[in-house]
Request: fold
Amino acid sequence: MRPMLPRKRVSIRVMLSALMAVAGFLSSAAQAQSDAEFFSHEIRPIMERTCWNCHGEAIQSSGLDLSTREAALAGGNRGPAIVPGDAEASRLFRQLAGLEGPQMPLGVPLAEADIEKFRSWINDGAVWDAGPATTVAGNEFQAFATDVPASARDYWAFKLPEKVDIPAAGDFAHPIDSFLEDKRQEQGISPAPQADRLTLLRRAYLDLIGLPPTVEEAEEFLNDTAAGAWERVIDKLLASPHYGERWGRHWLDVARYADSDGYEQDVDRDNAWRYRDYVVNAFNSDKPYDHFITEQIAGDGLDETTHESRIATGFLRAGPRVNFREKDNPERRWDYLDDVVATVGRGVLGMTIQCARCHDHKFDPILQKDYYSMTAAIFGYVETDWPMLPDDQALKYLATTAEFDDRVSSIREEIRRIEQSYLTELKIERIRNEFPSDILEAVLIPEDERTDGQKLLAAQVLTLGVPRAQVDAAMSDEAKAQRETLRSLIEEVEGQRPEEPPMLEVVTDGDYRYTPDRAGGQRLRLS
Reply:
């Protein structure tokens, strides 16, 4: 039997054990505090910037909430996100490191150093600080978005400007110079020497009109030694028509202006130049900015609508357009709407709204529901042409043109009816030679007897094109004669159509499904 230790020794052992326990507790507490600080300083900012936008209190994509340690341990639809002490087994780390599925966050993966911070944090037990995840506070954006992260609200662009005192950094006529001098002194930078008059003149010309001064203009300024010479040359440049050409081009870039549609058809826009001139003239006439924007977004709906305000709506339709079989492809309509929303967002609001087409915005305070609310607000618009005539004459011309369009359309429909049997036989022959038997069967079965799957197959393959030469070769002489008679009738009707006046490319209210075919569709129509 092991002898009992003397009471005094037992007391010492107990005391040492107690001291060791206390030391261990203090060490653990200090380590816990250190780990919490690591989370606060290193992990929390990253999660606030990336993770909590989609996995926070407001939104839990895939059922995953990363706003608290308990929620992260519980995980989402795919199981726990964190296994404390084992980063390699933690789904959060594996997604951030690109070890499992698409690397998160999508599109902007973390830097290697940040990924290593998550590895160390999880391996050390994934200690969380006591602070809650970022939640919406305040009501600055309540009218626009209610579930945006606080990091978006803290961005400088969404804060009200605050008036600050002008630095006492020298005696300058303009306060901006005082701010510049204050920063120069702070950075120990000496100002460049004052430019000579010829250099100043050249800079003014290039900045304001984009052209250097001529020899005569330079000599005139250098010889003008009277007071106000500089002010006079600036006024002269601002009054130059080249001023609007120089500075209007920057807004035309914002408006994604082009003289043709883009894409593979790239149809010319015969009257797009009117919008270009509108912008140039707006700068030259010093049009107020609020009027400038209002005319471009709603110029067709003002109390007093003019040709100028209608031309201004070209801003909304200046982007790339396919203009070929648009009504057969409704998704193109949504692309055009996205183009308009994106342009208004970037150019007018200074925000990248279009990201929210697919998800709540990751930075700007724009939710997906906000994006589709804006899209719904502009959905009922059409891109059309308006006669450059007094309104009563313009409406009369449009009504007359619509009558001629209907007459020509009915004749073209008759031509299609004559050609249709030949087209169908040629398509069936092609399907018989090039496609599997089940597709041929779907086409040959009467339409009212097809299954849903057969209807889909038939609809797809019966849109196949047939070369014009094959149609002409297959048609009977009688059918060709009938077609030629109808084509002659179209020429006769078109010859009676009133001459087209100058036209404006505008945007106005309407249903795009009932607008006339656009240029691309007209040029590529079979008949």
Q: What stands out?
A: Residues 331 and 337 are 10 Å apart (CA to CA). Residues 241-387 form one domain. Confidence is low (pLDDT under 50) at residues 1-30, 135-146, 520-527.
